[in-house]
Amino acid sequence: MTLNVPKDQINTLTNQVSQDGANSGVDTQAHASMVSPTPTHDTLKRRFADFATFQEALDYAAQGQRGINIYSSRGELKNSLSYRELRYQAQRIASKLLGQDLKPQSRIAMIAETSQEFMCNFIGAIYAGMLPVPLPLPTSFGYHDGYVRQIRQQLQSSKASLLIGPEGLLSYLSEAAQGLEDVILTTTWSGIDKLSWAPASLPQAKSDEVAYLQYSSGSTRSPYGVEITHKALLDNCRLQALHGMQLCDDDRAISWLPLYHDMGLVGFFITPLTSQVSLDIIPTDQFVRRPLSWLRHISQCDGNAISYAPNFGYNLITRRVKEQDIKSLDLSRWRIAGCGGDMIKPEVMQDFASKLSPTGFDSRALTPSYGLAEFTLAITIGSPNRDISTTAIEIDALGDIAMEKNITSTKTRSKHFVNCGPPLPGVRISIRDNNNKVLQDEQIGQIFVHGKSRMRGYYHNETETQRAITTDGWLNTGDAGFIKDGDLYVVGRIKDMIIINGCNYWPQDIEWAIEKEFSLNNGDVAAFSISGNTTEVDNMEKPVVLVHCKKKDPQEQIQLQENIREVISKETSLQCEVLLIPPRSLPLTSSGKLTRAKARQMFLSGEIKPISLQAVPVG
């Protein structure tokens, strides 16, 4: 089926490709032999995502010299792509997609690896009036079966027509798509490039049309594709660039974040593009192997570095960096060191700033933020050039949704929460109790948000859309938090709360206490509750804690188990069933976060098998 577009809504692709190809002088072989990074500075007047559609944003950026640079973990520049070249290549791909038997808004699923091929195909699908659907690379858990199952679920949810990815994953993708009627073609990047190209016309997008589908990394239920319109996307990019990060001409974006996660896709691919900022990017897996590569790249930046990471990225650096490494680094031009994507641990930020201070790193660069895929990305961004601040809450009061007293505490049994900053301009935050009553400042409740960046809904799932969005347009984030002095503090995910004998406990309190006491990494501990199945007493919820264990000696394992129980009892007064499990057993999301619901599911199904120990009484 060919795509019929009204004449008053098209741009002629033939003319565009011919003109851009001639001006860009793209020659793949010649380009590979003389790669140089795109510049930080440019004469093109800066515009902060003030465009109606994503295409318009790239059309404007293509008039300048800035662009995207892909590096190896050893600091070698692999690909450099100006926004002009990116536009040209994307339009070539759009012409090939338009030559297929596809309808407008067809979903084009693609593996979001850190590569030129993904970026060009993602934008090419948008230029063709279709919806790109970024899918994750394999994670450390599940391997073949788990990954194939995940991709298949997202293909079914999005009803994708095409599935594209790298050559090395083709067998996985073919297996995932097998038997799905909607998927008419599973191929590689080179397979798309080999499709026939004929002169065609590009449809002109409308601001309120959906631009792409984003899958939330933590979903353990049937996956829901988040519908992001051009309007919502450009609104959030503008808020981030102009008001959040307050970008200037000397700024350069540097990232290792995965492009299948909203913080990587929107924060460090689309936002730099829509505000004409050059981007240097390192593949995520290479950063994990050699985390120092991130700091070295920032150290060599010829402008002000803008870079974000979740907690585990900062924690990994703090653990791995050595004294001799610190002496070789200059982080004085790291202007914004953003943190988001998960609960922010103040001690991680403090340890990072302390250890890196000899490099010239300014602790005021640390910028806590809060956001989620259902709001495109950013909701709050901490004010630049301000030290991280925290507020303490009594441990015993943390489980109370809708507290009727001031949350600040000076008692020893308290926990500190990080100030994530004020809502971005035009964004409203409402804290509500379980009956939807709006709470006062300094009362803990459910976080609701309202603004132009909100998703349209979940693709083809009206039931879940109505659960997430109120009739007057407020989005229920599923998180708990409170407002103090106009700033947001996030307490945790409500669905993860452990309820024992009518009392509420936050699992991260248990996990953080164990990680700190035993020097474990984020993702080494999972806390959740399960139901009994025998007596009336057993049918009550019981807390379970799974902990990665590298120890081989049986007595050391038993002693570790006892020590963990003591720490939990001291911190929370809970008597938990502590089970040691082999390393790398716990599931992580595509962005490196622990997914407790998945861990619970895997434990109950027997997929996670505890290490066999001598029986030790509980309590």
Strand content: 15-25%
Cα-to-Cα separation, first versus last residue: 67 Å
Structural class, by secondary structure, is alpha/beta
**CATH architectural type of the largest domain:** 3-Layer(aba) Sandwich
Quick one: CATH class of the largest domain?
A: Alpha Beta
Give the proportion of residues in helices. 25-40%
Total number of distinct structural domains: 3
The counted number of beta strands is: 28
**How many DSSP H or I helices?**
19
User: Low-confidence stretches at least 5 residues in length (pLDDT < 50)?
Assistant: 1-33, 534-539
Q: What is the fold-level CATH name, i.e. the topology of the largest domain? A: Rossmann fold
Question: Can you walk through the features of this model?
Answer:
- With 619 residues, the protein is of the alpha/beta class.
- The protein folds into 3 domains: 279 residues, ANL, N-terminal domain (Rossmann fold); 162 residues, Rossmann fold (3-Layer(aba) Sandwich); 109 residues, ANL, C-terminal domain (GMP Synthetase, Chain A, domain 3).
- The chain is 32% helix and 23% strand.
- It contains 19 helices and 28 strands.
- It has an 8-stranded mixed β-sheet with strand order 3-2-12-11-13-14-15-16, sandwiched between helices.
- The longest helix is centred in the last third of the chain and has 19 residues.
- The radius of gyration is 25 Å and the shape is globular.
